[in-house]
């Protein structure tokens, strides 16, 4: 509504798109497209393990955006647990470094939002 270009994607969907783009020799174009939006929202990062190639491609997108455009990450995993997502420790450190540099980190707690909402609705229904 304010004229900002925003793109939302799941982490696995983004990585799959990048792998396909690399296979089709469209990687530079795809990374540039993700680099142009004002805000890139990546959801569920840390939920699934990424192979080395996928992690490296994601790193390229983050590097393209570094200090130019904003990135919002949603994850149920703490940074310490990202070593399960990014099996290469150096790559994991580099990704966390890029994401946290001059960042606002908002921790919402460990209780899953959807589960809390479901429980609240069930409790409300039980009292009616």
TrEMBL record:
PANTHER family: ATP-BINDING PROTEIN RV3427C IN INSERTION SEQUENCE-RELATED, CHROMOSOMAL REPLICATION INITIATOR PROTEIN DNAA. Coiled coil: none annotated. The lineage of its organism: Bacteria, Bacillati, Actinomycetota, Actinomycetes, Kitasatosporales. InterPro entries: IstB_ATP-bd, P-loop_NTPase. Residues 2-118 form the IstB-like ATP-binding domain. This is DNA replication protein DnaC.
């Amino acid at each position: 509504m304010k004229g900002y270009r925003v793109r939302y994607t799941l982490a696995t969907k983004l990585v799959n798109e990048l792998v396909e783009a690399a296979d089709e020799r469209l990687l530079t174009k795809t990374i540039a497209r993700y680099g142009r939006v004002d805000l890139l929202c990546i959801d569920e990062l840390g939920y699934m393990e990424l192979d080395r190639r996928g992690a490296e491609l994601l790193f390229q997108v983050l590097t393209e955006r570094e200090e130019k455009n904003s990135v919002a990450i949603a994850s149920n995993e703490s940074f310490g647990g990202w070593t399960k997502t990014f099996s290469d420790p150096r790559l994991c450190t580099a990704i966390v470094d890029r994401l946290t540099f001059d960042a606002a980190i908002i921790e919402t707690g460990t209780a899953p939002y959807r589960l809390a909402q479901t429980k609240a609705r069930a409790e409300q229904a039980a009292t009616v």
